[in-house]
Amino acid sequence: MRNTLLDIYNKLFSFFGPQNWWPADSAFEVIIGAILTQSVSWKNVEKAIINLKDEGILSIEGIINVQNQKLANLIRSTLYHNQKADKLKRFCLYVKEKYDSDIFKIFDKNIYELRKELLLIKGIGKETADSIILYAANKPIFVVDAYTKRIFTRLGYLKGNEDYQIVQDFFMNNLPCNTYLFNEYHALIVALGKNYCQGKNPCCDICPLKTLCSYNRSI
């Protein structure tokens, strides 16, 4: 399975090229993006981040001090903006109170201690926590999203009803534990899912994985 997963990675990398994710100017911006991108496209997250930058509040203190309704309005493009405003506030307050507003202090923990702590913060789920660990803390953990489940179910390696941890273990147990590999692999999966392996009307005839795909052979 290791060789198969690496073959899939190599085909995607050759087709799409390096993705250089996460698109952000700082580790803190990665965290904000990871929280805001829940249930929404990245294009909408970019709008919200630009708004936060324009207001000069893309910082822990800036988000803590801005009024809740103003913050929610600035991130309105991300859907569930009121709830996400609360999530941003909670995260920033947590880091301020426990780590003196220094996110790199929390990053000093090992992967599993860091993950456990992030998941204790209300509003931070597994995918968000793992995105923070991989893309902001630069530690090797495989991020699983809806694209991952869809693509690897269609390829024939998942049943489609596995929970997050089972899917993550599938990758982490069968790939070299490497931050760059996990970073690019997840970003390439997103590129494939957005542009070819859509939920409806997938572009199977021009998909770079069509020769490996059980779903393609069945249609």
From TrEMBL:
Gene Ontology biological-process entries: base-excision repair
CDD domains reported in the protein's UniProt record: ENDO3c
Gene3D superfamilies with a match to the protein in the record: Helix-hairpin-Helix base-excision DNA repair enzymes (C-terminal), Hypothetical protein, domain 2
Top-rank taxon, per record: Bacteria
Residue ranges annotated for the HhH-GPD domain, each copy included: 36-195
The entry's keywords: 4Fe-4S, Endonuclease, Hydrolase, Iron, Iron-sulfur, Metal-binding, Nuclease
UniProt keyword annotation of Lyase present: no
InterPro entries per the UniProt record, alphabetical: DNA_glycosylase (IPR011257), HhH-GPD_domain (IPR003265), HhH_base_excis_C (IPR023170)
Keyword Repeat appears in the UniProt entry: no
A molecular function (GO) term: endonuclease activity
Descriptive protein name: Endonuclease III domain-containing protein
Organism: Aceticella autotrophica
Lineage of the organism: Bacteria, Bacillati, Bacillota, Clostridia, Thermoanaerobacterales
